[in-house]
Write a structure and sequence with these properties.
Layout: E1 16-24, H1 31-39, E2 45-50, E3 54-59, H2 71-76, H3 79-95, E4 107-113, H4 118-129, H5 142-146, H6 150-159, E5 165-169, H7 174-187, E6 193-200, H8 206-214, E7 243-251, H9 252-257, E8 264-273, H10 283-297, E9 306-308, H11 315-329, E10 336-338, H12 341-344, H13 351-360, H14 362-365, E11 367-368, E12 392-393, E13 399-406, E14 410-417
Parallel strand pairs: 4-5, 4-6, 9-10, 9-13
Antiparallel strand pairs: 1-7, 1-8, 2-3, 6-7, 8-14, 11-12, 13-14
Length: about 425
């Protein structure tokens, strides 16, 4: 099924493009660093230890939080806020916008998150225990730290942005959801510049590790760099990671007017819901989501050059997504399929945005980065076009599709076009 009108036929003031990228990931603090790691097989997963759970593994970011924040702001705020502030400022710097002269009442902030406030609540209760639970010692910063709009709000405060700001709670589909929300607000003329993407501070809450461990879904491996292994027959679960990625989104006419560098155009997107289980995915609903994104972009499946998978390294999740991809792309000889979590683990709310950013460079270098750590491919995950362990050169890719799925059955797909 092909849409009656693709985004190419829309007027330029309704076509949305990416003109800036700022990020921090376990394997780099810029798009160039992350891309180099992806092409050269460098993992960002390392040994990690957290309260109550003990020794484990995680994807830890190492960015300079003082680059854009004073010590006082870091103490008062949150790790997610710092990730967002760093990524958003880097995105603006990368975009080439004349930031000092931008009307900041016309800038919107749309940050996807998996969860927020767990870290701060856990820490406060832990500290309070040492004072015999006397609430006189409870931090007066607790409420602004834990409100749902906090990460986006910290960005707004730091960058003096007076347009709309909010976070989008979309589980592990949140990075894609942030991009989609930003594009929609631009099309509605609610803003002229959208800072959109996803953020995660997940490694700083013991609860998420404990929960995955109790489910038997927390990855283990003697070599941390080999722990995240989607599609491999010996995969053992999720590596929890932190990170953030923020895109500068603009309408095409505005980007052209200022001569901006354009990383790609949002060609299509979709979000739907399984409505079948709290945790277990539904491949039929996932494939429906992908088909809907294709239909909105006016594309057939065999026009997609790269599919960036969500696969997290869990036994059932990887198989179910592969079933969905097989339904959509099973006959496509053109499409290459990869995975970024094998390098950095699962960055939760930031995952979709970081994974999309890492693949966008294919429009410039004509290379599809691989999935690493696949020693023995699970037969149930076998797909035509799966790129394993070594990068593959491809002939001038035109379209990238980014999958991100999450708990409570939320599914998302975003398609970016070379421009």
């Amino acid at each position: 099924m092909i849409a009656a009108q693709s985004t190419l036929n829309l007027p330029d003031n309704q076509r949305i493009v990416i003109t800036g990228i700022g990020l921090t990931a376990p394997n780099g603090n810029s798009l160039g660093e992350v891309r180099d790691a992806l092409l050269n097989g460098r993992s960002g997963v390392s040994d990690y230890e957290i309260r109550y759970v003990g020794k484990t593994l995680a994807g830890v970011c190492d960015f300079d939080s003082r680059k854009y924040q004073a010590r006082k702001d870091i103490r008062r705020g949150t790790r997610a806020g710092s990730v967002g502030v760093f990524s958003a400022n880097e995105a603006i710097a990368n975009s080439g916008l004349d930031w000092e002269n931008v009307d900041r009442s016309r800038v919107g902030i749309y940050m996807g998150v998996t969860e927020h406030g767990n870290v701060e609540t856990e820490n406060e209760i832990y500290e309070l225990k040492g004072y015999d639970y006397d609430i006189a010692f409870w931090s007066h910063h607790h409420n602004p730290r834990t409100v749902a709009n906090n990460p986006a709000g910290e960005v707004a405060l730091n960058m003096q942005i007076t347009g709309p700001h909010y976070t989008i709670g979309a589980a592990c589909a949140a990075g894609n959801a942030g991009v989609i929300q930003g594009a929609q607000m631009l099309r509605l003329n609610e803003c002229d510049v959208a800072l959109a993407g996803g953020l995660s501070e997940s490694i700083h809450t013991f609860g998420i590790f404990a929960s995955f461990k109790s489910q038997g879904a927390l990855a283990e491996h003697q070599d941390p760099t080999r722990a995240s292994r989607p599609f491999d027959v010996d995969r053992s679960g999720i590596v929890v990671s932190e990170g953030g990625c923020v895109f500068v989104l603009e309408r095409l006419d505005d980007a052209k007017r200022r001569g901006a560098q354009i990383y790609g155009e949002l060609a299509g997107y979709a979000i739907n819901t399984d409505a079948t289980d709290f945790v277990l995915p539904n491949p039929e609903r996932q494939s429906e989501c992908i088909f809907l994104a294709l239909r909105r972009a006016g594309l057939a499946a065999d026009q997609i050059d790269i599919v960036s998978t969500h696969a997290t390294g869990t036994g059932s999740g990887d198989v179910q997504e592969c079933a969905a991809i097989r339904t959509v792309f099973g006959k496509s000889e053109r499409t290459r399929i990869n995975n970024t979590k094998s390098f950095i683990g699962h960055a939760m709310g930031a995952a979709g945005a970081i994974e999309l950013a890492g693949n966008l460079c294919s429009f410039q270098d004509n290379v599809c980065h691989p999935t690493i750590n696949v020693d023995q491919l699970d037969p149930e995950c076998e797909l035509p076009g799966l790129v394993l362990n070594e990068s593959q050169e491809i002939d001038k890719p035109e379209y990238i599709l980014n999958n991100s799925f999450g708990m409570l059955g939320i599914n998302s797909a975003v398609i970016i076009r070379r421009i």
